[in-house]
Amino acid sequence: MEPIECVKNFLSSKENLSPEIEMTGRGDWTLSQLHHNLGSGPCDFDEETPAHVRTMCKPMGATNTSVLANFNNGRLGNQISSFASVFSLSRRLGLQAAYPYRTVRLLQQLFDLPPLQILESQICDPCTGLHHVHLDEYNGSPADFHRGHLIHTEAYPNYVEVYSADLEELRKILKLKSEAKNYANTVHSNIKRKSGKSNTVCVHIRRKDYQSYLAGFGGRSVGVAYLNRAMQIWRRQLGDVVFLVVSDDLDWSRKKLVDDDIYYSPTPSLVEKSKLPRDSVAENIAIEDDILHSIEDRLELGDLLGNNGA
To answer: Which pLDDT band holds residue 173 (cuts at 50, 70, 90)?
Structure first.
């Protein structure tokens, strides 16, 4: 499939559109309109981006290859999917990739990143000094916008079919920090010691903000029945197994998933000691890098980066 056709398929699919784009049907947002919709984001450079990040920026000329970027107000999981989508899609469309400082800052909490093109250090005044084009408008007339423009995706891109071909390279870029690996190893060792089991399965449950996102287009999460059936499958396959639940809603998990072989992610004090961000996605990625098997209620890029057998 041609790159542009592949992206068009994403843009025409409801499940890949952010609620903002779906409701408005707008493909011609300016960056300030996008910023207004998200509440905070790309135009907060003065408050959020340190001055030293902008010291080497240059005006973007009309003959320069256009830049592809994404702006969202999401947490770590959204930033990982955003990074991968922009990384892979820019290659296929022949555009420059650039990442807002906020995205890079959040990724640096968990990963040892190589040098990346930070948008605010690459281009001076990206909010006001460029003509902004939404990705679906670019797809309609790529020749018109291939130079001198900033092409932006919808708020929360997750182009799995695009970045799946680049997983090996993404794993090399998004390398876990040693603190994250040590944390996961400590958690895993403690669970095996307490349970006396030789096999561990990580159970990732995402609820909270994800519930409202799904409700926006009539969807719902998989529920307890799915999780119990999945655990039964692993019990039959592995026999000697213990389950480690990682979730952004541990209260719900402790009430709904109860058995002698089910344990829950550690207390906040251990997370703080590890210097990991207080984010269930960070815990999940680190632990799945140390544990071979997993159960997912929603498959995300972070799950694919680890060594799990979901």
So the answer is: very high
